[in-house]
Known about the structure:
By secondary structure, this protein is α/β, with parallel strands linked by helices. Helix content is 49%, strand content 13%. It contains 7 helices and 6 strands, in the order H-E-H-E-H-H-E-H-E-H-E-H-E. The chain has helices spanning 2-17, 42-53, 65-84, 90-98, 106-111, 124-137, 153-157, and strands at 35-38, 58-61, 100-103, 115-118, 143-146, 166-167. Helix 6 (124-137) links the parallel strand 4 and strand 5 (143-146).
Amino acid sequence: xEQSQALRHIFFGEREAQRVPGLPADTQVLPVxxxxxxxxxxxxxxxxxxxxxxxxxxxxxxMTEEALAKGLQRCEANWQRTVASGRLSQxxxxxxxxxxxxxxDFEKTVGEADLVxxxxxxxxxxxxxxxxxxxxxxKPGAILATNTSALNIDEIAAVTSRPEDVIG
Length: 168
């Protein structure tokens, strides 16, 4: 029937979405023990929550204590709504919340990360400034990711000495 066809389509679609065309099958996955998200706004908070949902320790970095508190509170409120609706247990919330932390110490926090995801304003000059700083502070081999939806990632990567480590 129609539902069966739809479920099969979803099943195969999920598997296909995990494949990257041209990527060799023996490509090694880089371990991510520590993730940092630069910016705790709507996008940054959502990215941080997704990481914690999948068991990855994540730290949101913000410029001020006030912005950091607001970002962490937004994440907590989103999870609490899910708990209140019965789609998430309190124990699971506690587990996820324990994986989420925050900091205003950009240099120290970024320096410890395996993966840094920038989620700041969609402005090329701001993103270039952030990536220039990340290039100096992030440890060798760390992946530097941008959350841009429209800006040229190659242009952002060009401000670093390691454009091969920059992804979008």
